[in-house]
Write a structure and sequence with these properties.
The protein is of the alpha/beta class. 55% of the residues lie in helices and 13% in strands.
């Protein structure tokens, strides 16, 4: 089982739409028999116990270090750009389309 980090806009644009899209991508990865980490779900955690943006990024970076690949959903997102840069630095595959990620997982 591989772990895929789902990176995509959260607060840019429609937050609910962004969360839904990320969860749908994560669900497709789960349905393919793999694990997905969807950081968008941390929005609920932040509602209950707010944390500084950089603390969230540090948590996300730790999870990326333990991931097998990153799926980057489209849309403007400075944080996602940082996540992709870390993944590339670590030599992790970065997929820009869900279909490409699922194909890679199927191999």
């Amino acid at each position: 089982m591989k772990l895929i980090y789902v990176a995509g806009p959260l607060a840019t644009g429609n937050t609910i739409k962004n969360v839904r899209r990320a969860v749908e991508a994560g669900t497709a990865i789960l349905s393919a028999g793999h694990a997905a980490y969807v950081p968008h779900l941390s929005v609920v955690w932040d509602w209950i116990t707010p944390m500084d943006y950089e603390d969230w990024m540090a948590l996300d970076f730790e999870i990326i270090k333990r991931s097998d690949a990153v799926l980057r959903l489209d849309g403007e997102c400075p944080g996602c750009n940082r996540e992709v840069a870390l993944a590339e630095l670590l030599g992790l595959p970065v997929f820009w389309e869900l279909s490409e990620c699922l194909e890679w997982l199927d191999d």
